[in-house]
Amino acid sequence: MNSATNSAAKSAGKSGNEQRGEERREERERAVTTAVQPTGTAARILEVFGEHLPVRDIYSPEGSRLYDVITRDDHSEVREILRAARGCAGPVLDLACGSGRLTLPLRALGQDVVALDSAPEMLRILGERLAADGARRSGAEVRLVEGDMTSFSLDLSFDLVVLGATSVTLLDAPSRARLFARVREHLAPTGRFLLSATDHLERAARPTERIRLLTGENGPDQALHLMVEHLDPLAGTRSISILRQTVRAGEVVANELFVSRVHTVSSAELSDELDAAGLRVTARHPLATGGPGDAPGVVLLECVR
Ligand SMILES: C[S@@+](CC[C@H](N)C(=O)[O-])C[C@H]1O[C@@H](n2cnc3c(N)ncnc32)[C@H](O)[C@@H]1O
Questions:
Q1: Which of 19, 69, 114, 228 could form a disulfide with 216 if both were Cys (CB 3.0 to 4.6 A apart)?
Q2: Cβ–Cβ under 8 Å, residues 191 and 159
Q3: Which DSSP string do the residues of 182-198 spell out, in sequence order?
Q4: In whole angstroms, what is the distance from residue 51 CA to residue 3 CA?
Q5: Domain boundaries, the chain
Q6: pLDDT higher than 60, residue 30
Q7: Which of 170, 258, 259 should be mutated for ligand 1, with most atoms under 8 A from CB?
Q8: Would you say the CB of residue 77 lies under 6 angstroms from ligand 1?
Q9: How many other C-beta atoms are found inside a 10 Å radius of the C-beta of residue 118?
Q10: Alpha carbon of 7 to ligand 1 centroid (Å)
């Protein structure tokens, strides 16, 4: 029996309110059991709220909408990537494009873009943003591709492939090897691959946290976002958790926790992995800090075949 029929059978004979309450509880349970569990302060926040706090993956449909809201003003890497894109022949491949934080400025520059992501909701939001931003299109075209960056196959080769927001850390070592093989396959002979990496775990001698509070919206309501980045160099883990509190007429009407656990790999280790995949690192650009998603110790690696 699937969960929908299961829920219908269980709710037989109950009032509308009871049914809705039960459905909400079931939805919360499903969300809590399917998402990565938080660490550090976020784990303690979850203890405080208990079962009343739904936990979701940051790249779930709901999380994709949150990601879009909190990264709208994040301009980290954009200047460096636009500089590399100037004068590129043909489209730029924006891997793990999300809701278009890099795609939109690339298009505004007049660059055609192939924007690939595995999350349909991210691509839906990007499609909406592209349509809304039509006035800035400058004749450039964007092709949206739903796909996995470790297994894609496109009918094109690219002068420039970008992988921003340290998204390479979403992958474990075998997946990174598959990604780099795909990138090499799709790079033009003189093409470049730019990817951002983070070295901040190396700098931490003991578990550390960065906690920031961002304001924003959740649909028509205001929202507070408490972002907790927890690094544990001993366990080799880094997780990012966001408590979203939706505020309506001065009252918190909903609390949700969004979690992403990433892999820890330094830029030096990445350079070795890239090298093994036939991609040579030719430059390392330290990234300026400033945006809300920004972190110290982020570097943009530039590679060629
Ligand atoms: C940190 S966001 C980066 C989004 C955007 N590039 C930016 O700079 O803001 C990571 C993105 O990677 C996507 N993603 C995760 N795993 C993926 C995979 N295996 N293949 C393609 N996209 C993936 C997620 O859906 C999400 O949109």
A1: 69
A2: yes
A3: HHHHHEEEEEEEEEEEE
A4: 19
A5: 73-199+265-304
A6: no
A7: 170
A8: no
A9: 17
A10: 33
CATH 3.40.50.150 fits 73-199+265-304, yes or no: yes
- Determine whether the shortest distance from the Cβ of 180 to ligand 1 is under 6 A: no
Supply the pTM of this predicted model. Answer: 0.86
Q: Residue 268: name the closest of 210, 203, 189 by CA.
A: 203
Q: How far is CA 6 from CA 26, 28, 139, 213, in A?
A: 11, 16, 51, 39
Distance CA 125, CA 209 (A): 30
Would you say 266 and 202 are in contact if contact means Cβ atoms under 8 Å apart?
yes
Quote the pLDDT of residue 295.
Answer: 55
Q: What pLDDT is stored for residue 6 in this prediction?
A: 34
Task: Name the 3-class secondary structure at 10.
Answer: helix
Point out the ligand 1 atom lying closest to the alpha carbon of residue 119. 25
Q: Is any atom of ligand 1 closer than 6 Å to the C-beta of 57? A: no
CB 69 within 8 A of CB 218: yes
